[in-house]
Fold each of these.
Amino acid sequence: MNFKNKVNDLLDDLEVNIKSTKSGRTSQGKFILRSLELLKKSATQQSESVLDECSEPLISPVYILKALLSKKRGQDTLSLKFFEKAINATGSTSDILRINGDISHCYGFIETAIKSYDKAVELSPLNDQAFLGRGKTYSEMGKVTSAIDNLLQATLLNPESAEGYIALGNEYRNSSMNDAAIKCYKTALNREPENAIAQSALDSILELVIPHWHAAMLNDYERTEAFETAINATIKPETYVLDIGTGTGLLAMLASRAGARHVIACEAVEILAETATKIIKDNGFDDKISIIHKHSEFLSIGVELKQKADVLIAELVDASLLGEKIIPVINDAVKRLCKPGVIVIPCGATVFAAPFESKKIYQESRVDKVASLDIRLFNRIKPRMSLQTDLSKFQWKILSKPTEIFKFEFPSKKFVPKRHKFKLTPNTDGMAHGIALWFDLQLNEDTFISTSPFSASTHWKQSVYPLSSPMMVKKNKPISLLASFTENRINVDLGE
């Protein structure tokens, strides 16, 4: 809704409220309604003339109209003064004060809006619209706790209002409380199934919490077959399993189908946990698998887990291996939630890297000139990051033999971030545009998955690190590969 329409709606609201009070039936009330009618028609001078006929003491709606007229003349200081006077004037009902707060907020008089909402709530603690307006205003002020408190109160007072749930959902989303935001947007849609704002907000946040690759991962035959092979080779009838980041519950069901005594499967995203619970029930595993909506770090023995786990499944792997914090998560779980000698799936990974030539991939990661205008300065501020890329979809050339840069064990006995320098010998002349990275994920002694561009395709594809500037390499002339890692990131670069 644009600004003009918002103000016009508030004027309509003001008119309805004036007519519903006894002041609307007085001579002053009649002048107010006539002035308001003229103001809505943009007959500013006539509206002001009618308003001048109101006798003292002036009631709150008169000051609101005077504030609006002053604002139209560009007299902001005088407008603010009238909005302030409206708060303590006679005829200040809770609804009139709420409207005064809404209009003050529209014009940027934030502190005055809060004062008006405060008085409105003081006069009527059940005024849900006053709580809603005050919550939205606190949100604009960056006062998160006050915003959530007021918006929550608005939904409690008027549980049928989609607007309140949308506003509360927005505040939760802005505070990264995604599960709570999703609940609010879904409730808003339950109230108003055709509400486009609520649907758009829900779609946007689901894109954040359920990444686009989720379906591709579930459809990844190579991944599923390898995990099932490793799980089948591990599970025994007495096995108690912990599955971290269960998502839809697929690996938990594979473990249960393999004969596990019981599987505890945790999932941090509430809507995924709820969906996994239904999927597991639909597939007949609900008596063998327990879905826990928590991060694994908040699980405890004797609370969520009856005993320590014999087997830990933690497929927390992205295209560059460490982005989902597989190392710290597994280390914590093994230390607190698993028996000594626990079997971990996956149990390790080996990371490979190689420089490559592909002008097309490089160009897609950079900007140059657009519409004959030089935009290259943007490249200086663009974050240095890897790109999930299916190399088979591009023309590319590997410039050296792949180099093993890191080898990880899960759990990591002693995790220390490292930086290494490797000497590479190019096996061909070429222009290095980036470094391709892939890994072999070891599930057990006999089973692994490779994301190599020379192996069967997986949903992980490869991870590509474009260089800041292309680098010419010569056959048999050594170059340096710089590689480092932290608990959730691998970085690579080339040097002379």
Note: The mean pLDDT is 92.
Amino acid sequence: MQEIVKFAYENAPYYKRSFDEAGVKPEDIKTLKDIQKFPFINKKTQRDTQGVGSFLGELAAVPEEDVVFISTSSGSTGVPTMSPFTKKDFDEFQDTESRWFWQIGMRPNDRYVHALNFSLYVGGPDVIGAQNLGALCIWGGTLPSERFVLKTYQPTVIWTSPSYAWQLGEKALKSGIDPKKDLNIKKIIVAGELGGSIDATRKAIEDIWGAEVYDFYGLSDIFGACAAMCEAKDGLHIAENHILVETIDIHTGEILEPGQVGELVFTTLRKHARPLIRFRTGDIGRIDNTKCSCGRTHGRIHILGRKDDMFIVSAVNVFPSDIEAVIREQDGITGEYLIRIFERDFTNKYAVEIEKNADNPKSDDEVAAEVTAALKARIGVKPARVVVHPDGGLDTRSEHKSRRVIDERTLDYSI
């Protein structure tokens, strides 16, 4: 940490200016806790400094000729931001991916389909980590469901988003293909959405495929997968040789103890193209530093959701992941859902739209009442309404990230 803070201070214009203004120097780092003396950065910092002074911007700590790869964020919370890598950064990125693949049980005799978007997406190159491990790799990209690569090549491992893993399985069943009998998938890696860490969603996908599902967590700001589940499926092991994790109060920035829920803050320890010192991820969760039952000692992060996605109803913090957990546990509905957040009488309300299975004999009103009661029991506040659509009636299915929250509020509810 001392080396990377010093490197950032001496080579990135933003850090030199920011540290000087805060009255701190790299020499102030004596222990890991001393990082708390240094100022935070966030997505706004990245956007404000991108392209300033050079193509790579003021957060970059190396010249452009040292950069061999850039990815960009999706831009879901604003202007897309680029993430540059030196060759050393990129090679260590892939070494970490190889470690995660091995952790979930991938071996050289596996056939692997990398069904992620390759278009500027930081998860695209992760397939190289599988190749370096020795697996036979199929660069699938965003697989159209009608091109059933999984039946033709009979791969044993696939990586995609939770929503698409679910949809691909359901489409297979509807086309007469039983994923459990006609395909050979043994392990499914999911990332890009929270579903893989929601027990009900993970189990639903496992039930369709007859395969083990493992959640990976990544940030375009750092690299493809920074943390991954193991066989215990009790949180995601974080790459602590690359990332120092802090948890802070989302309102005050106060440092929280390990195990307490707050916003996760990452400091990169080895990435040189663009070091991130105390980067506020916007993800809400906790860090568990106890030894995992799998025997690994790297800490585990538990993600609850995005700070941007959390909304408050009747003084209760509600995450879309809480709602998804309920929907995926209900019988007689497809598992697809859409959340609408709106205002009524100057207070937040939410509505949930779902799909009823075609063979469900219950009326729409009965289904809505059951879902309303389940949401009230799980979350503590019931939705203003539950709208029931027929199977396929929601436009939420996607080959990448599904859009499941529509915020119709007009007032500023920034946290």
Note: Residues 2-74+237-284 form a domain with the Rossmann fold fold (CATH 3.40.50.12780).
Amino acid sequence: MLSAGALGITSLGLPSASTSASVPTVAVADTFTVAAVADRTVRVTWSDSAYTDTIEYRPADADADDPWTTTEAVTSPADVVTTEGWATTATSRAYDVRIRTSSGGVSVVTDAKEVTSVAAATGGDAIDLISVDVEGESVLHRVHRFDADGDLTLAFTTTVQYLIVGGGGGGGGHIAGGGGGGEVVTGSTEVTVGASPVVRGIVVGAGGAGGLRVAGGSPDGDADGDGGDGGDSSAFGVTAAGGGGGGNVYRGGHDGGSGGGGGSVSDSGAGASVTAGSGAGSAGGPGSTSSQGGAQAVAGGGGGAGGTGGAADATAERGGDGGVGALSAITGTELRYGGGGGGGVNAGDSGGASRSAGEPGIGGDGGGGDGGPKPDPWDGTNAATAGLPGTDGLGGGGGGATGDGGLDAAETSGGAGGRGVVIVRYPVPG
């Protein structure tokens, strides 16, 4: 983008267009476009001519004999900073813009077109310009991404589209369920701006902590081994709930934006399956039961914003997969958000007899973390592995930890949930 300095903007009183026969033909007359693209900046696009082109602009309410501000020679497209005629508190200013083509000491100008130049909308950790198809036409949109709490300041009336994703739930700490993905909420709202800019507060939910298995301790059935719930995200009065934490062994998954997966029941424990959490997105998958007859206790996957978490399958010795996240293309690229974490498995027993470690569940598409990877080979003393974290900015649930049965020497934890995100976009005025 060219700055005002780069364009060499100066205020000049230029002569009227000559009518001499030697004046070059201006093929761009009435064929150029002009649109607001950034803070007090307009973009002018036209077919390049074989002559020297400059851009001229002045406030739309200027008198007929007021001078035009002109740039140095430019090529299409050119960005012009409209610094002339702005009041310090103004949120927008209308300008007339035209193109002057010169050759051999003579010049002609196009008819002027009016454009509303606007003060920038601010806020967020990344701001991009993308083209969006609107009823068959390409419309320039500005996208703001919030990875942390902040303010969106708008200086013009517009319709804002939003994607709000809660933080993912953490995976449980011992043969445990995967965390649920953060809830995903999409929509739009009209923001009306008067004489002063409008500020809207944005809150981004943190991912839940992974449940912890303390070295030398006995976390079985302990709530401290559950994954933590993800934090809520909010904007424009709309809230997306954080995902539920994955359940520790013997414990159910937590309710949340999507439910956490259920922890396992050991193969010597009660026959009833451990329940999964529910949520506005999808429920997590239940943990295994001893009645399934498998060699391993395995845990359920966390629910995703777009699909239910997979149930544990002790017969196949496999943890449940995380549920798939919800799809959005608000940034111009299709991505899934709010995937659930995969369930952990049992890779050992209290007697130290070697078993083939079960297969952990896979994290759901949309940032879900996998269950703790199986140890290969298992040395009979420490088979516990941590669940993988959910992806920050996607609100994925953390994977449940793989445990070592009754062995109590190992310390491990579930994967932390991924941080949520708030993304907004709106058409650029012009």
Note: The CA atoms of residues 210 and 416 lie 4 Å apart.
Amino acid sequence: MTGEWWQENGFCNYLSILPVFHFSNATKVSLLPHPFPPPYSPPMTLQPSHSVFVTGHRGMVGSALVRALEKRGQRQIITASRSEVDLTRQQPVEDFISTKKPDVVIVAAAKVGGIHANSAYPAEFMYENLMIAANLIHAAHRAGVKRLLFLGSSCIYPREAPQPMPEDCLLTSPLEKTNEAYALAKIAGLKLCQHYRSQYGALFHSAMPTNLYGPGDNYHPENSHVIPGLIRRFHEAKASGASDVTIWGTGTPKREFLHVDDLASACLHLLAVENPPDWVNVGSSQEVTIGELAALIQEVVGFRGALRFDTTKPDGTPRKLLDVSLLGSFGWKARTPLRTGLDAAYADFKKAIEAAVVRD
């Protein structure tokens, strides 16, 4: 394998973090599935009669996809709980997909979390997300699934990526250390789809959303993402009469946020594209600092105390804004303003509190 090949494919600056494997002449390595799957038909777009397997249907993203599919009139939506199919185990995944024979698979299942969770449990984040991606993508290929959409994250792009981040900046420089494990697993899934597509003609492609929020989010006090974490913190501070709320970091990093129903809309839009890109960014183009976001959520919740910033805690990537021009060229655009989405998210959180069904 030549140095020119690596440079052309954007890996040149990333070799330092990847392991190198050496095989003796006697080692036999087969990357081909056995038996061979049925030949792939010409590009297929999603139709109401198609069966769709949505993984992670109880999570925020998966449940949004199920809602969008139901609203669209999809007649066959396949789901499976963790107790029914452990997606980190290859054989159960292959058995399930070969039995159900879905036309389309959407990989929305993932182990996710905020800066604290990613920093504290990198092994679990990398292992579980690698296994979910590898098992589902390979099983879909073996079963002759006509189309697969893999969902990743904007954290796949380098820490110092140009802003806004275009798709082609992938693997051009090092990742943000605080979520490197999760990002590498998502990059592996994206690349696996790309290679099954180029090698076998499987219509497997990916969508890389920005930071998400909305109904069904995880509100764990330590391991959640920034918006659900702040909603819970401000809500509890208001209820207890606290004088202030402390936010991790300096408050200066800039972030983009996308309502999960907009992501679901984008996914269905992509599944209607006959020949989509290997991967495409999905964002809102709405950018705020963490400090501005905290003040906005404080206003939504109605907390009247002070905001404080713990500058001993990590900030993460300085700025994360996706270039969404490629998806825009296919006629899609996010529709939910941030304030509108936050109002709805807080209303959903309060309903979940009253029903004692808050995810954490």
Note: Confidence is low (pLDDT under 50) at residues 1-38.
